[in-house]
Amino acid sequence: EARTPVVLTEVAKTKKFEVVSVNSEMLRSCTGQSGWTGAEVLPADFFESLRRSYGCDAVLFCQLTVFHPYAPLAVGWRMKMVDTRTRQILWAADEVFDAGQPSVLSGARHYQLAEHRASEADDWGIRNSPRQFGQYAAAQLVARLPGRQKDH
C-alpha cells in the first residue's frame, strides 16, 4: 500500500527497532488477508506465525483513519504495537493531525525544515502534499514509540 513506506521509513528513523516489513502475499497465505489493522479478530496463530516466519518480538499495526488530501490537509493515524509472545499491547496512539490548526502547521513546517532542509519560504510541500504531511504525522506518532524491551 502507498502509506506503508511512509510508516516504515519513520519507524526505521527512530533506530529503536530492527524493522521488517511483512510481505502482503505471505500474510495472505498465512492468514487469508493481505493486511490487518489490529482491530479485527485475528487468527489464533497470527502472532506465532509471524514470530516463526520473521523472528519478530512485536507487531506494529497501522491504520490511516482520516485523509483529507486538499489544503488544509488532515491525516489521522491509529497505531498499536503488540507483543507477539504475550499478545499485550505495548503502545498505542490514535491521533488526527489537521493543518488547519496553527500549532500543527507550525510543527509540520519545523519537521520539513529539519528533514528536507527546505527554506522557510518553501513550505508549499508541507501545506499541499498529502504524502509529506502524512510523513510528518507518522513521524510525530512513531517518535513516541517505547524503546526495545531487553528482557526477551
Question: Can you describe this structure?
Answer:
This protein is an alpha+beta fold and 152 residues long. 40% of the residues lie in helices and 20% in strands. It has six helices and three strands, in the order αααβββααα.
Order of strands, widest sheet: 1-2-3
Give the number of DSSP strands. 3
Number of alpha- plus pi-helical segments: 6
Helix/strand order: HHHEEEHHH
List unreliable stretches of 5+ residues: none
Structural class by secondary-structure content: alpha+beta
Overall mean pLDDT: 86
Rg over alpha carbons = 17 Å
Tell me the fraction of residues in β-strands, as a range: 15-25%
The portion of residues assigned to helices is 40-55%
Brief overview, please?
The protein is of the alpha+beta class and 152 residues long. It contains 6 helices and 3 strands, in the order αααβββααα.
List the helices and strands and how they pair.
Elements: H1 4-14, H2 24-31, H3 46-54, E1 58-68, E2 74-83, E3 89-98, H4 102-116, H5 124-128, H6 130-142
Helix pairs in contact: 1-6
